[in-house]
Amino acid sequence: MNFSVLGSGSKGNSVYIESGKTKILIDAGFSGKEIAARLRSIGRGIEDIDAIFVTHEHHDHIQGVGVLSRRYHIPVYSNLETFKAGENVWGRLSRYSEFATGDIIQMQELQVRTFTVSHDAADPVGFIIGNGKVKLAYCTDTGKVSHLLRQRLMGCNGLILEFNHDLQMLKNGPYSPVLQQRVRSDHGHLANEDAACFLQSLLHEQLQYVILAHLSTTNNHHDLAMMAARSAIGDSFLQLRVASQSLATDLMCLK
Ligand SMILES: [Zn+2]
Ligand SMILES: [Zn+2]
Questions:
Q1: pTM of the prediction?
Q2: What secondary structure letter does DSSP report for 191?
Q3: Predicted pLDDT of residue 50
């Protein structure tokens, strides 16, 4: 299985995943043009995408969903609450499939497992994508780490995990007390230290890649997130990366 985080953060999110002939996107939170360009930058084409799976209706996750679906006839998958909340942004879709949170969807060679996360959206989810050999988890936009989250992410070979903010930077930064409270709440975003603690509990020998995602440009810094994650993984040999807002990561391979 290969994957690339095409971009991550409050200005847009999208992840590309392929296994054999099956190619999907999780979220499409940039313009259609931008997503097509970022796919080209890793040697892939938007016209080959088989499906877009949507985590939740926030703009940074769905901006390009409608236009890509219509232009390239891409089916869109979401739960009903996300569909109802996202519909007025994405408009008509070429094709749509509804899942219930908790469902496992077979998408050609890929199995996509959905699980609930804690965030201020209608019915937000994360995904575990498997091909029978390896599993990749996508888990951002969650304010807390639940027992369910731990259970779902355990045993994955790759993790795309939210490291949203540094608590000190948030406290001393420009956000109003109300907005700070929203970010820190159980329905907001994960702080570096919470994510690092979670990561530590998920370590195992077959964990190959950990991608730190959805970093706040205002309340976090690449080095702080990296430091928190490094201290969590100890002397493990796994690959650590920080997903950027402006550029796609290279194509990474889970085996
Ligand atoms: Zn987001
Ligand atoms: Zn969100």
A1: 0.97
A2: B
A3: 98
Phi and psi at residue 211, in whole multiples of 5°? Answer: -110, 120
Q: Please report, rounded to a whole number, the percentage of residues in the chain having pLDDT higher than 70.
A: 100
Third-level CATH fold of 2-253 = Metallo-beta-lactamase; Chain A (3.60.15)
Cα 212 to Cα 75: distance, rounded to the nearest angstrom:
28
Task: Find the 16 Cα to ligand 2 centroid distance in Å.
Answer: 19
User: Domain locations in the chain?
Assistant: 2-253
Closest ligand by atom to 9 CA: 1
- In the reported structure, the alpha carbon of residue 244 is separated from the centroid of ligand 1 by a whole-number distance in angstroms of 13
Q: What is the pLDDT of residues 29-75, one digit of tens each?
A: 999 999 999 999 999 999 999 999 999 999 999 999 999 999 999 99
Ligand 2 centre to CA of 121 (Å) is: 7
The tokens 């998958």 sit on which residue? 77
| Nearest-ligand number for the alpha carbon of 82 | 2
Cα 13 to Cα 32: distance, rounded to the nearest angstrom: 12
Tell me: the pLDDT tens digits for 9-41? Answer: 999 999 999 999 999 999 999 999 999 999 999
Query: Ligand 1: distance of its center to the CA of 235 in Å?
Result: 31
Q: Which amino acid is at 9?
A: G
Cα of 234 vs centre of ligand 2, distance in Å, is 30
